[in-house]
């Protein structure tokens, strides 16, 4: 991949003198969905697929961006004086947002750059291509200009830029999983205080398979912000009765006791998902530590049901992928992953069932939905890296 990127960089920008190559992974969340902005736990891992970037410093303030994934757009030009979000800037709003965030936090960027990206994360899949670009940009700025920021800082800066620059009210999980990734480990993260531990994910005789629905969805124009708002209102209503800082502070019993404080049935369902999903995530990691992968899988299945019925973020495409997966002998667990409304499912599948899984689920999906899904057998990788 490095050689391909350097060759393309020379083709697009004239030569590849002084170019450095970087990588930031994508991520998949195994369980703990829509809990990260509700003060709950999540359990994501970084992947070996992600975003590659070639970059070099310029002698002026100009910024030139090129993506091999959007090559029809050609070179998109901007400058350090033009770090403002704009529809016409397209995908470059993500790296520009991170540059803006660095400067907001007192780290002045002294010169412009030429940046070429090539990602092997499917676009719009829900595997966090945007967060991958954000962490990658932060890693480039740190390496080029000597900014003293940790990988955890890169995650927080990426989230800040997505919230404040791109207007998507995302939680911390995506950027954190990407910036803090560790090979063969998932990250058990408490989003309330950012305390975390690595949990080895040893799937003896099984692998993680991601099914991409190929239904495109954009977080900003989806109902993501609406769900977040519903949870915030439900929390405010509960706080009149219970002393809590977030929905993640509640267990199921306490929630059931006080749920009448929530004034609407819809908000009650949203809050129920946040509370129950958080407890499921805690139990899932406990099961994994005991080597009980079957229990982990059944909690994944329960997570999907809750996301479908209480949080209502799945839709026909994701439900079809999951429900067809559940029919196959050798599937340990399957659920939607990411924000929902399209994107991907994540399944743990026994090695001997993987081919059958891809064929059967793929066939049923195409028959019902009318177009094909894509399948990826993935491995767990590390965080951002300099590749030269």
Q: What report would you give on this structure?
A:
Helix content is 40%, strand content 21%. The protein has 388 residues and is of the alpha+beta class. The protein folds into two domains: 2-201 and 382-386, Ribosomal Protein S5, domain 2 (2-Layer Sandwich), CATH 3.30.230; 206-378, GHMP kinase, C-terminal domain (Alpha-Beta Plaits, 2-Layer Sandwich), CATH 3.30.70. The strands form three sheets. Strands 5-4-6-3-1-13 form a six-stranded mixed sheet, with helices on both faces. The longest helix has 25 residues, at 265-289. The two termini are 12 Å apart.
Task: Report a brief summary of the structure.
The protein is α+β, with helices and mostly antiparallel strands and 388 residues long. It is built from eleven helices and 13 strands. It has two domains: 205 residues, Ribosomal Protein S5, domain 2 (2-Layer Sandwich); 173 residues, GHMP kinase, C-terminal domain (Alpha-Beta Plaits).
């Amino acid at each position: 991949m490095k050689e391909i990127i350097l060759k393309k960089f020379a083709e697009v920008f004239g030569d590849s003198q002084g170019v450095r190559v970087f990588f930031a992974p994508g991520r998949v969340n195994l369980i703990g969905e829509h809990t990260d902005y509700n003060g709950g736990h999540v359990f994501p891992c970084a992947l070996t697929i992600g975003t590659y970037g070639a970059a070099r410093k310029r002698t002026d303030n100009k910024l030139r961006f090129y993506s091999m994934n959007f090559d029809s757009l050609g070179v998109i030009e901007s400058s350090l004086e033009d770090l403002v979000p704009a529809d016409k800037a397209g995908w470059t709003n993500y790296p520009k947002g991170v540059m803006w965030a660095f400067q907001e936090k007192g780290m002045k960027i002294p010169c412009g750059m030429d940046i070429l990206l090539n990602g092997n994360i499917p676009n719009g899949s829900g595997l966090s291509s945007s967060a991958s670009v954000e962490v990658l940009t932060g890693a480039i700025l740190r390496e080029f200009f000597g900014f003293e920021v940790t990988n955890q800082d890169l995650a927080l800066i990426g989230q800040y830029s997505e919230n404040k620059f791109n207007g998507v009210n995302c939680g911390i999980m995506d950027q954190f999983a990407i910036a803090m990734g560790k090979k063969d480990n998932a990250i058990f993260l408490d989003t309330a205080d950012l305390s975390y531990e690595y949990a080895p994910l040893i799937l003896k005789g099984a692998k993680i398979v991601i099914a991409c629905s190929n239904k495109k969805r954009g977080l900003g124009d989806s109902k993501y912000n609406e769900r977040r708002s519903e949870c915030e209102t439900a929390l405010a209503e509960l706080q009149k009765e219970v002393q809590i800082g977030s929905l993640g502070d509640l267990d199921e019993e306490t929630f059931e006791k006080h749920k009448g404080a929530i004034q609407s049935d819809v908000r009650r369902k949203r809050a129920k998902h946040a509370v129950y999903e958080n407890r499921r995530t805690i139990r899932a990691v406990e099961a994994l530590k005991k080597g009980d992968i079957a229990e982990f899988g059944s909690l994944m299945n329960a997570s999907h049901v809750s996301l479908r019925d209480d949080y209502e973020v799945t839709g026909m495409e994701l439900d079809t992928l999951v429900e067809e997966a559940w029919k196959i002998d050798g599937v340990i667990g399957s659920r939607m992953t990411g924000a929902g409304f399209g994107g991907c499912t994540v399944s743990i599948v026994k090695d001997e069932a993987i081919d059958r899984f891809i064929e059967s689920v793929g066939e049923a999906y195409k028959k019902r939905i009318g177009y094909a899904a894509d399948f990826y057998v993935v491995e767990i990788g590390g965080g951002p890296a300099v590749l030269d």
